[in-house]
Write a structure and sequence with these properties.
A 6-stranded antiparallel beta sheet has the order 1-2-3-4-6-5, covered by helices on one side. α2 runs antiparallel to α3. The protein is α+β, with helices and mostly antiparallel strands. The protein has 3 helices and 6 strands. Helix content is 24%, strand content 33%. The longest helix has 16 residues.
């Protein structure tokens, strides 16, 4: 149990989440703050994001990034901070039958975490593929395939910016955007 007083806890959460608002993400990512879950932890912040095709309004992927803070450090979290993420994108139809799609999707997340060097504990999650086939009057439609990656982990400390970067990298990967080297900014592409 934490010995901090309520104002100190609130200040710690406010400072950590303020840093999230200062993180610079790729220009294709559009974020907005949304209502956060109220019952899971005493303090929470939720962001909704979309990866939008440069020069258009077409969303290539979407997801959520939620930060939870409980100074009581729930045992399953292995600390007071928890990040809960979701990323979803449509894929090419032929990928729906790929037997390793789940493992590949999970590796996108774990690679982003390991490459960032951010400290974390208690990583867990799921990768789900949804294949929709059309029949009858809709039988001429190609199958639709969606990939959903849901994951949560506990940051080692209140430095949450790296964890937002991890999620944004995952979101761009599921959207099919190529990775950008450190320090490089994507330029908008010209529509032809």
């Amino acid at each position: 149990m934490s010995s901090r007083t309520a104002p100190e806890v609130s200040a710690a959460f406010a400072q950590a989440t303020k840093a999230l608002r200062d993180v610079r993400l790729r220009p294709e990512i559009h974020l907005e703050e949304i209502p956060a879950p109220a019952r899971i932890a005493p303090h929470s912040l939720a962001l909704s994001g979309e990866v939008v095709q440069a020069g258009s309004d077409e969303a290539l992927a979407n997801g959520r990034f939620v930060v939870l803070y409980d100074p009581a450090s729930p045992a399953a979290w292995e600390g007071p901070w928890r990040v809960v993420t979701f990323a979803r994108a449509a894929l090419e139809a032929e990928l729906g039958a790929e037997p390793l799609l789940g493992e590949v999707g999970w590796s996108w997340l774990t690679d982003a975490i390991h490459d960032s060097g951010a400290g974390y504990r208690a990583l867990g999650g799921t990768v789900t593929r949804v294949v929709s086939e059309s029949f009858g009057g809709l039988s001429e439609r190609e199958p639709d395939v969606e990939l959903e990656i849901r994951a949560s982990w506990s940051p080692s400390g209140p430095e949450l910016g790296e964890h937002l970067q991890i999620w944004s990298e995952l979101l761009c990967t599921v959207a099919g955007l190529p990775p950008l080297p450190e320090g490089v900014t994507a330029l908008p592409s010209q529509r032809r």
